[in-house]
Specification:
Helix content: over 70%
CATH topology of the largest domain: Four Helix Bundle (Hemerythrin (Met), subunit A)
Distance between the termini: 58 Å
Order of helices and strands: HHHHEHE
Number of helices: 5
Strand content: under 5%
């Protein structure tokens, strides 16, 4: 009887160990798979952010450069006017055709306010300076001569636009750097009413006894 009980106990233990071991292995494999998928998603997200930065900066700088070139030839090199005008209008077309494609990813990754900034500030400034530039081109092509004061105005407006573009690019670059840091090191969550779901029970208990509750935070995987 005793031997039978021992055998049964051994069998039960073996089965239990096997079932438990199989469960733990499957759980580990599932968690590993989810971790790999998250990593792939985050890498894709970072690639999209970098591509967005590269494309906006490339298109913006190309349009700005073509406008500077056109302003320069208005007074200094009229024979080059048609060539500079063609390049400007080509870059104008490229910018306008790409602009709408920038809005969804900017809104998704940076917020609606950055999309409005691109449309109502960056693009609107390009349009305003472009109109003034086209007026000067029509004047020259009609046989007139643009005033140097008008070129000074155009150069000043383009310098201001260059500064606005630089700040916009920097904001995009900072967004890429911030997201990369969150992916590599985790995202910091502060002890606030809207983010308590990120805190474990033990974290919430610790918060009750901390002297600086506003500075209390936890870091979780991005």
């Amino acid at each position: 009887m005793g031997n039978s009980s021992a055998i049964v106990a051994a069998l039960v233990g073996a089965v239990t160990t096997g079932v438990l071991g199989n469960y733990l292995v499957q759980r580990w494999q599932r968690q590993s798979w989810f971790a790999q998928q998250r990593q792939l998603f985050h890498q894709q997200e970072l690639d999209e952010l970098k591509d967005l930065y590269d494309e906006i900066s490339e298109r913006g700088e190309a349009r700005l450069t073509s406008m500077r070139r056109l302003v320069a030839v208005l007074l200094d090199d009229p024979p080059e006017l048609e060539k500079a005008l063609d390049e400007y209008r080509n870059q104008l077309t490229l910018w306008n055709s790409a602009l709408r494609s920038f809005f969804p990813p900017i809104t998704l990754h940076y917020g609606w306010h950055k999309t409005l900034q691109l449309e109502n500030e960056i693009h609107a400034n390009f349009v305003a300076v472009g109109r003034l530039l086209e007026q000067q081109v029509r004047l020259v092509k009609g046989g007139g001569k643009p005033l140097s004061a008008n070129r000074t105005v155009l150069q000043t407006r383009l310098n201001l636009q260059a500064g606005a573009l630089s700040e916009f690019y920097q904001d995009l670059a900072n967004g890429v750097a911030k997201r990369r840091d969150e992916v590599l090191n985790g995202k910091r969550h502060w002890y606030r009413s809207g983010g308590l779901s990120h805190f474990s029970t033990s974290d919430l208990i610790k918060a009750l006894f901390t002297s600086n509750v506003d500075g209390f935070n936890v870091v979780r995987p991005a």
